[in-house]
Amino acid sequence: MAAVSLSQFLTLYVWFPLAFVLVFLLLIARFYQRFASERTFFEWFAVPILFFGAAVMRYASIGQIAGDLPGDLLMGVAGMTLLSLSVFLYYRMTQNR
Known about the structure:
Shape: elongated
Distance between the termini: 58 Å
Number of helices: 3
């Protein structure tokens, strides 16, 4: 049985609150789409969840938190996707108000 290092444990431990926050954001977008009848593309919020999950799994498998090119690229793509979706949702929810 392999021992889990502290960095691997913390990397995986941080994933769960992050996933919870992203799912909560997805649910906010879905709620707004249902009741405001404006398209929010809430389904696309699953993309950063998957990219963040893949990055966390990559970091946990190599035993370090940063400095790995594939993990860093996955994390960057996830962050940029989340940023663009969040800004889009913000403008969609606050336009003409």
